[in-house]
Amino acid sequence: MAIISICSPKGGVGKTTAATLIATTLAERGAGVIVIDADPNKSVVDWARLPGVPANLKVLESTDENEIVRMIDASAAEADFVIVDLEGRASPIVGHAIAMSNFVIVPARGSNLDAKQAARQMAMIKTQERLTGRAIPFAVLFTCTNPALQPKTQRFIEASFAEAGVPIFSTQLFDREAFRAVFSFGGTLSGLKARRVSNVQSAIANARALTDELLHRIKNGNRPVEEAA
Question: What DSSP assignment string belongs to 29-89?
Answer without folding.
Answer: TT--EEEEEESTT-HHHHHHTSTT--TTEEEEE---HHHHHHHHHHHHHH-SEEEEEE-SS
